[in-house]
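Lay summary. Proteins are chains of building blocks that fold into shapes, and those shapes determine what they do. In this project we predict the shape from the chain. Here is one chain we studied, written as its sequence of building blocks.
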Amino acid sequence: MHAITIPEPGGPEALVWDEVPDPVPREGEVLVEVAAGAVNRADILQRQGFYEPPPGASPYPGLECSGRIAGIGTGVSGWNVGDEVCALLSGGGYAEKVAVPAGQLLPVPDGVGLTQAAALPEVACTVWSNVFMIAHLRPGETLLVHGGSSGIGTMAIQLAKAVGARVAVTAGTKEKLQRCAELGADILVNYREQDFVEEVRKATDGAGADVILDNMGAKYLERNVKALAVNGRLAIIGMQGGVKGELNIAALLAKRAAISATSLRARPLEEKAAIVAAVREHVWPLFTGGHLRPVVDRELPMRDAAAAHRVVEESGHIGKVLLLTAPQGA
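And here is the predicted shape, written in a compact code that computers can read:
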């Protein structure tokens, strides 16, 4: 098969479409013939040499994919060759085939095409696990999403609205904020021109956000605590704004607030399987009737992964950027 390899860490040009051995599913795994993968910020970090795959994972980038089951390992039940699926991965999504633990498989949701389903596993699992399983967002509460037009952000907006929450978002352009509004965002903050702490306070009569989903890390830490409501919960899922910040414990205590920080990739199989099962139970039914939809910015041939990385690094996208193993017209 072919896969995107990284012979040496570096810029987008470090991604090489090369011939590699086919993966073989181990006990408890299935072999998926990949239709599409999706680009995540973690893939960029891996390409740069800052985010090695966990032990035993595929060395190729790619944390989610969609495709058809082509083989089944021992000890797997409930899946058949030919089933259309999407999957949460520890690596290997930038390839024509990938071996996946059966607990990390999801059926393609009703009303979603096979290719576009590649945009869903990582964002759905990240949002559900952080915003709902950990931060316990409830109907009537306010969720602040940083990077509202990202893949994570577009899913967070839709899921929060589906459960009856109010949603504030930050983004850097009018176009991105408009797309967030179309998905249901109630409070729109241009972080280049406005202070999100002030805007969220004004929109909530001084109360603040009950839950904040943050991809920035250190850069926003102090202001995120200021923006929290009493009993607020800050869920950190990224560090685009740095890894070391100063935390005012007194401010946190005064608000009886909580901070969590998680990633998906290195979690034990059992934890990933539990998250995937929760997403299948609670999130997948929302695709029926159009309550949720994947938001895809563009589709590119997988062999052109370098171009896709440039788009994501420049934040020139809204939603997800997909990589197709066999794009139409190819």
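What the prediction tells us: Residues 301 and 330 are 8 Å apart (CA to CA).
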